[in-house]
Design brief:
The structure holds two protein chains of two kinds. Chain A is built from 19 helices and eleven strands. In chain A, 61% of the residues lie in helices and 7% in strands. By secondary structure, chain A is mainly alpha-helical. Chain B is mostly helical. Among the domains of chain B are: 82 residues, Cytochrome c-like domain (Cytochrome Bc1 Complex, Chain D, domain 2, Orthogonal Bundle), CATH 1.10.760; 101 residues, Cytochrome c-like domain (Cytochrome Bc1 Complex, Chain D, domain 2, Orthogonal Bundle). Chain B has a two-stranded antiparallel sheet. Chain B is elongated and about 80 Å long. The chains are: A mainly alpha, B mainly alpha. At the A-B interface, α5, α10, α11 and α15 of A face α7, α8, β1, β2 and α10 of B.
Chain lengths: 540, 268
């Protein structure tokens, strides 16, 4: 494999076969369209070679699977709530009155060749899409890859995550079966929980009293037109910014803040990535061929009276459902002639704050550290203990809410009482993130200590020797320069000092910032310095 | 570095049992306990009494030795078990036929287990309890054939039963550790009896509530669900989005990440 340096300052001199091909293509296109700049840039774009950098690609490819299967579904799906009597081939629903939307989803499932497979591909791909985005986001967070100059892309990426959830939810509501109707009923409840205007908003949204006759066509416009359009635009911007900013990379010898080391996209990586697209697609189709997803035929048509045990949203909406399940009772009261449904408002407010904090996290951290430099080296999570700890706390918070959405399933499958599960999760929602914070921080500091130890003294070889004086000692294996680089190349921040400004005053803002900075950087292990390394060498 | 890891791997290989060994062990264990269980329960069986009066007294005997500790010598109830006056043959047939009675332990809910009596013995006890006071009887076979209106049955089931048992009959949680069990594999007569007697936390669905024809339709619907595998493939327990979500995270994302690791692995 060729490893080429794409240095922004020194373009590589001897063109390889791959870059000659890229050059030729760029030339061909340029003579016709003068877009060589883009082709060259794209073709010579360097891709790092750690697996976690491919999660975004998984998301991209599952999105393509969604687009293809979704387009197929639009050919046959009928987005209206006109009541019809089902006359398809699924016996247990024959003659039942239902909306045209549900009837056409059943037809897609049973009477259109390949329809069920496409429905299942669409839905499984949707689950995989959001899961891949989620994991991709965690990778970016824990690597500190959201730091300057990539803050904006973090915001765009997170917007994509929210859009994906919205796409998923609107799609889940389209078939108009019992499950999707129950989901919409919860949305209706949340809208009505908004103080003062709630009922109006709900009537506006559903075109009258829930469920009304217009919600499916409205959601359909959102699902196949508006949201995908915004999503594709945001995705384009996201990828464009990624190309402009280039990838971050793990620290290693030869990797600096000024270059990107990896494989140029053309031709090897493109081949691999092209293949990878088919692999992701294949995995989705394989799963869709053998595993049922959303068996709408079981749920029956939507009707406000029945409900099924085990009614849940898709996994990515689970945390919202979980929040509603964990609200303690007694938060609803009447004041000034209005009902204040804090049982619904409280979770909405808490989650709203959580989401805003995640979106603006890069700016918060930049303000606290006061760091205005550009960062292209991926930080190992252990080397930013406070950030890693905050991330662990956030993940725990989300995970508890997520688990709460399945509280009934947890209760029946582990033979617990639903009350015990709920109370435990309520406690964990508060305590879990705190515990996770401290544990993660301690682990990071311990790992940093270990790295420092190894950088200075080498690996423990397990070989004991006896010195002439009778003393026993373990032989340490020296690191080579490459290994050592990985361990010591990180930025050592120190808490900001409160210094008077030009007019000799200390602003309150600066004090606050100093407090935060101390919180961030008080506990830290400095990397082994050159002097330490040199004096350490040869000792063992 | 490389030699190091390969010796490591070899050592691990040598120390590990064959992957099928544990499955074989479990199978052997299950088979032997199952066999022993079958042996023990069949030795307890007695010949079916012929005459009705004879079976009532036979039933009384079985009751006295197996049930009276909780339900009282005359079935009028004790602190440990309710009175059985008026519960009818249907209730006894359901409770004993699904193995719930005799109750194994006092828990949130008596659970289904392999029945401990033969059908003849159960019939005898049912006759005995029915002789004490009138109550719902054993359902007529004509409602149990599964030839009712499946679509109607599905609709009635979704309205009356799905909130506890789930639309696909997969079961669901109730409060305080109680739960509505999965309905897969339950015999038609037990389904009917459950509806007319309302065991424990299940409501009674009497004949004005759900006509016998409705009940027959429900039974037909459940039978259809049981006999026909999910058209979409493996149904993941019909638990809904929770099992789908777990599946995609563990197997879907797991498989894809496996491939990414392979793609980005540097050839050594
Ligand atoms: C990120 C993007 C998308 C996500 C997450 C998503 C998700 C979903 C989900 C979960 C369903 C319910 C499927 C079911 O089980 O029946 C659905 C239905 C549907 N989607 Fe999408 N979708 C997306 C984009 C699209 C696009 C771009 C189109 C059209 C080009 C589309 C067309 C449809 C149609 C027609 C249905 C209804 C068909 C049916 O329910 O049988 N979707 N979508």
């Amino acid at each position: 494999m060729t490893t080429v340096q794409d240095s922004t300052k020194t373009p590589s001199a001897t063109p390889s076969k791959g870059s000659r091909f890229t050059g030729a293509v760029a030339n061909y296109l340029d003579e016709r369209t003068s877009i060589s700049g883009i082709t060259k840039e794209l073709g010579r774009k360097i891709f790092p070679d750690h697996w976690s950098f491919m999660l975004g690609e998984v998301a991209l490819y599952s999105f393509i699977a969604i687009l293809l299967s979704g387009t197929f579904l639009t050919f046959f799906f009928e987005p209206t709530m006109t009541q019809v009597h089902y006359d398809g081939s699924y016996v247990p629903l024959k003659g039942i009155e239902m909306s045209a939307a549900y009837a056409s989803s059943l037809d897609i499932s049973f009477d259109i060749r390949g329809g069920l497979l496409m429905r299942q591909v669409h839905h499984w791909a949707a689950l995989l899409f959001v899961a891949a985005i989620g994991l991709h986001m965690l990778r970016v967070f824990f690597n500190g890859s959201f730091r300057k100059p990539r803050e904006l892309n973090w915001v765009i990426g997170f917007t994509l995550f929210i859009l994906a959830m919205a796409e998923g939810f609107t799609g889940y509501s389209l078939p108009d079966d019992l499950l999707s109707g129950n989901g919409l009923r919860i949305i209706d409840g949340m809208l009505k929980g908004v103080p003062l205007a709630g009922t109006w908003i709900s009537y506006l949204f559903f075109g009258g009293e829930f469920p009304g006759e217009v919600i499916v066509p409205r959601l359909y416009s959102l699902h196949i037109l508006l949201l995908p359009a915004i999503l594709v635009a945001a995705l384009g911007l996201h990828l464009l910014l990624m190309v402009i900013n280039k990838h971050t990379q793990y620290a290693a010898a030869g990797r600096t803040n000024e270059n990107v080391v990896g494989v140029p996209i053309m031709p090897n990586f493109a081949a691999k990535a092209g293949g990878f697209f088919f692999v992701v697609f294949g995995v989705i189709v394989l799963i869709a061929s053998f595993f049922t997803i959303n068996p709408i035929w079981n749920y029956g048509p939507y009707d406000p009276s029945p409900i099924s045990a085990g009614t849940q949203p898709d996994w990515y909406i689970g945390f919202l459902d979980g929040a509603l399940r964990l609200v303690p009772p007694g938060l609803e009261f009447v004041l000034w002639g209005h009902t204040w449904s804090f049982n619904i408002l409280l979770p909405m407010i808490v989650i709203g704050i959580f989401i805003v904090l995640v979106i603006i996290y890069p700016f918060i951290e930049a303000w606290i550290t006061g760091d205005k430099r550009e960062h292209h080296i991926t930080e190992r999570p252990r080397n930013a203990p406070t950030r890693t700890a905050i991330g662990a706390a956030g993940v725990t918070f989300y995970a508890v809410l997520w688990a709460a959405a399945g509280s009934d399933i947890i209760a029946t499958h582990f033979h617990l009482t639903i009350e015990a599960v709920t109370h435990t999760l309520q406690a964990l929602l508060i305590l879990g993130p705190i515990i996770a914070y401290f544990v993660a921080k301690r682990i990071c500091l311990a790992l940093q200590k270990k790295d420092r130890e190894i950088a200075l003294h080498g690996y423990e070889s397990g070989r004991m020797i006896r010195l002439p004086g009778g003393q026993y000692e373990e032989v340490h294996r020296e690191l080579n320069d490459y290994e050592r680089w990985r361990l010591v190349d990180y930025i050592d921040y120190k808490p900001l000092m409160v210094r008077p400004d030009a007019r000799g005053r200390i602003s309150p803002m600066q004090r606050v910032r100093a407090v935060f900075s101390r919180w961030f950087f008080e506990d830290r292990i400095s990397p082994a310095t050159r002097a330490e390394l040199e004096s350490g060498e040869g000792h063992h | 570095m490389r030699t190091h890891s390969s010796t490591d791997a070899r050592r691990r290989q040598a120390g590990r049992r064959h992957p099928l060994a544990s499955i074989a062990l479990i199978t052997i264990g299950l088979l032997s306990t199952g066999g022993a269980y079958a042996l023990l329960t069949t030795t307890a069986s007695a010949d079916a009494p012929a005459a009705s009066q004879a079976s009532i007294s036979e039933g009384q005997k079985i009751f006295a030795s197996n049930c009276a500790t909780c339900h009282g010598m005359s079935a009028s109830g004790t602190a440990d078990g309710p009175s059985l006056y008026g519960v009818g043959a249907a209730s006894v047939d359901f409770q004993m036929g699904t193995g719930r009675m005799p109750l194994a332990y006092q828990g949130p809910q008596g659970e289904q287990k392999p029945p401990q009596f033969t059908q003849e013995q159960i019939d005898a006890v049912a006759m005995y309890i029915a002789s004490l006071a009138p109550g719902p009887g054993i359902p007529d076979q004509k409602w149990l054939n599964g030839d009712g209106n499946i679509a109607k049955g599905g609709e009635v089931f979704r309205i009356n039963c799905a909130m506890c048992h789930n639309v696909a009959g997969a079961g669901g949680a109730l409060t305080e550790g109680k739960f509505a069990p999965s309905l897969s594999g339950v015999e038609a007569r037990h389904v009917y009896e459950a509806m007319v007697t309302g065991p424990q936390n299940m409501p009674v669905f009497n004949d004005t509530n759900l006509t016998p024809q409705d009940k027959a339709d429900i039974i037909s619907f459940l039978k259809f669900q049981q006999d026909n595998a999910s058209p979409g493939g493996v149904d993941l327990g019909s638990l809904g989005p929770v099992s789908e979500g777990l599946f995609i995270w563990i197997f879907g994302l797991g498989a894809v990440i496996g491939v990414t690791i392979w793609i980005t692995a540097r050839p050594n």
